[in-house]
Amino acid sequence: MNDAEIARIAARLERTNELLQRMLAEVATTPSTHAIFVDAGYVYAAAGLLVAGTEDRRAFDLDAEGLIEALIDKARTIFADSRLLRVYWYDGARRRIHTPEQQSIAELPDVKVRLGNLNANNQQKGVDSLIRSDLESLARHRAISDAALIGGDEDLVSAVEAAQGYGARVHLWGIEAAEGGNQAEPLLWEVDSRRTFDLDFCRPYITRRPVTTYENEGAPPPSRDEVRVIGARIAAAWLGERGHAAMAELLPGHPYLPGPVDQDLLMEAERLLQRSLRGHAVLRRALRDGFWQHLQSQF
């Protein structure tokens, strides 16, 4: 190797060192960024069970705005030298159309609502894939250095791995389980840190709704035919809202209805009749018969 080649190599090394020093100086002055990813289905179920004793959303109200503010404040203390990108709120909705509650959450500052679908059994579909897509994309583009993930589903493991693969740290936040656990063990193993919010933290944001009372409980109960007609009315509205694809999911289970659908049917019938059907097994069977008869007539 002659002197000219040695000089060229030395010049390249000097240039490389200069570029590295400039890059390190830029990284040192660039603030880190964090985002909060909230699986709303997990929050409703876990916090509802812990505070109100039930996972049924219809039995309690969630102060989402207050809870989100509390989560932002908690992140501010944990990631003291970092700025918030935004809060991502993942939930399910029929045909991915915002409910009034979801719309009010979407209007909050620094909050992005992302919707998966709800199937005929009121189960969320597509939420985990939305979380993975956002986590992976933000980490890949170096938009975040830390992600606070609030959820418990094992399907989120792939989202965690994807974000970590691009250098982001993922911190799993959970809600104290009323009993046992409410987060999958593989998810607990995969994350960089864990934090659990207890009853005292969650209690201010959950309010149990009062039990519905009816004015005409002393009146004679409706006839089976009347209740059957109500069941058909509810089925028509149900079909119009959810479509024939949802109906096709129900038909193989005839004559049984999935628990969430059966509960919705009962509550809507009680609202229309303005009386409770609890304790009236014959009338509840007539209600289901009317519901099924209408669906089958449309198939």
Percent helix range = 40-55%
Number of strands: 9
Q: Which structural class fits the helix and strand makeup?
A: alpha/beta
Order of helices and strands: HEHEHEHEEHEHEHEHEHHHH
User: In what range is the share of β-strand residues?
Assistant: 15-25%
The major β-sheet equals:
7 strands, mixed
Q: Which residues form runs of ≥5 with pLDDT under 50? A: none
Principal-axis shape: elongated
Placed side by side, the strands forming the largest sheet appear as: 5-4-3-1-6-7-8
Instruction: Count the DSSP helices.
Output: 12
Termini gap:
85 Å
Radius of gyration (Å): 26 Å
Which whole number gives the mean pLDDT?
86
Summary keywords:
elongated; 299 residues; alpha/beta; seven-stranded mixed beta sheet
Secondary-structure blueprint of this entry?
Elements: H1 3-29, E1 32-39, H2 40-52, E2 60-62, H3 64-78, E3 82-93, H4 100-106, E4 111-118, E5 124-125, H5 127-140, E6 146-150, H6 157-165, E7 169-175, H7 185-190, E8 193-197, H8 199-202, E9 206-208, H9 224-242, H10 244-250, H11 259-273, H12 281-297
Parallel strand pairs: 1-3, 1-6, 3-4, 6-7, 7-8
Antiparallel strand pairs: 2-9, 4-5
Helix pairs in contact: 5-6, 9-11, 9-12, 11-12
